[in-house]
């Protein structure tokens, strides 16, 4: 006689039918939100009561899925950054896209760990790596992987650079003499990466820029010569494709030339700018990028993949792997079975457990196609030109930096212009009409509109201009 064993309770639904209905409601609600983005403000401040609701006690007892979702609908959804909204122009945020969101949902369902082992999700990531290599003209021996973002990819790229130079110098050689170069417009994560790697931010020489925000080669040459004369060891040149403040692109072909002559590792921070390679009219700006030793960029900015999806590409895959190699008994590789498929992604970075960022990227790239994504990138640059023209035609406004790509820095004229423009930025954000950010350029606080969102229209840019004029006139 068969004895029925008591079932061990799992975390799966007790009532699949009910949870299925709830899951469909959640998907529908998010689709409604995406479809109706324009009907709401870009951003709204969070009321104190909502903020206080996040100070709840430890959730020892269960809630229904429906109750938790309701709290999300009331407490989270309305008070998010606003980067989905076509009026969002602050910082450099991607707008996301439905195909990417659905890919992320499927990835959550699969719950794949892409640290290693032999399974299809890793093949998806390898597929994206092959596409990335091809896109940027890197050889088949180049390695790469998804990481959180360009901050992490820069850190890892610089780690590989240091490992390569110390390896080439032989054991026992000191890293105390190493020095690095980047333009003064380099992103703050680069000096921080040098700090985190134990080299210290003091090793970074900040090379002055020209009137267009690009690294000056004469200044670079002078800095290298001075360091060599002092007995120091230049090892790294960081070029930026799309500076975070004004969107400038360093002269990458010249930097590649210098790197070769001076035997420096050329790392390019192309966080958002590298993907201009997808837009035929912008791609020539990136000439020389194909000669970089390593490249960091984000799919979550201009390519609109949902956060987070950064990527590191390294020309010399062997050096890359050597820089992160750390054998462990429980990570033994085999030629058959689940432990096959070496090398694994965990051999190329600091993370062992890794999520399936590749899937939302694969969905985004395949669903829209690269040509279409390139068109949206180009469109944001057309909008930037429109904003530049509007600023130049308004006597009360002043253009504060040349427009290379998709970032426009400008300000409202007036006495105490710094305080005035800081107030305008906040007023415009709180109005819900648009969301510019601010930055400092040559000692001036300026309004900064980074046009990244694929949903932004000319009328949204015009609304920003009108709002700045309105709040500036108060
Ligand atoms: C955004 C950005 C970064 C940082 O990238 P994250 O993905 O936010 O970590 C680095 N450099 C530049 C030029 C950027 O625009």
What can you see in these coordinates?
- The chain has 474 residues and is an alpha/beta fold.
- The protein has a domain at 104-368: Type I PLP-dependent aspartate aminotransferase-like (Major domain) (Aspartate Aminotransferase, domain 2, 3-Layer(aba) Sandwich), CATH 3.40.640.
- Helix content is 41%, strand content 12%.
- It is built from 14 helices and 11 strands.
- It has helices at residues 16-35, 48-52, 65-75, 98-110, 120-136, 150-169, 189-196, 217-229, 252-262, 317-324, 357-368, 370-393, 417-431, 458-472; strands at residues 143-147, 178-183, 204-207, 233-240, 265-269, 294-298, 310-314, 397-399, 407-412, 437-441, 444-450.
- The strands form 2 sheets. The chain has a 7-stranded mixed β-sheet, with helices on both faces. A 4-stranded antiparallel β-sheet has the order 8-9-11-10.
- β4, α9 and β5 form a beta-alpha-beta unit.
- α5 crosses α11, α6 (150-169) crosses α10 and α13 packs across α14.
- The termini are far apart.
- The mean pLDDT is 96.
CATH fold assignment of the domain at 104-368 = Aspartate Aminotransferase, domain 2
Low-confidence parts: none
CATH class of the domain at 104-368: Alpha Beta
CATH architecture of the domain at 104-368: 3-Layer(aba) Sandwich
Major sheet size, sense and barrel closure: 7 strands, mixed
Q: Which radius of gyration do the C-alpha atoms yield?
A: 25 Å
Task: Note the total helix count.
Answer: 14
Question: What class do helices, strands and sheet pairing give?
Answer: alpha/beta
Coarse shape: globular
Beta-strand portion reads: 5-15%
CATH superfamily of the domain at 104-368: Type I PLP-dependent aspartate aminotransferase-like (Major domain)
Helical fraction: 40-55%
**Adjacency order of strands in the biggest sheet:** 1-7-6-5-4-2-3
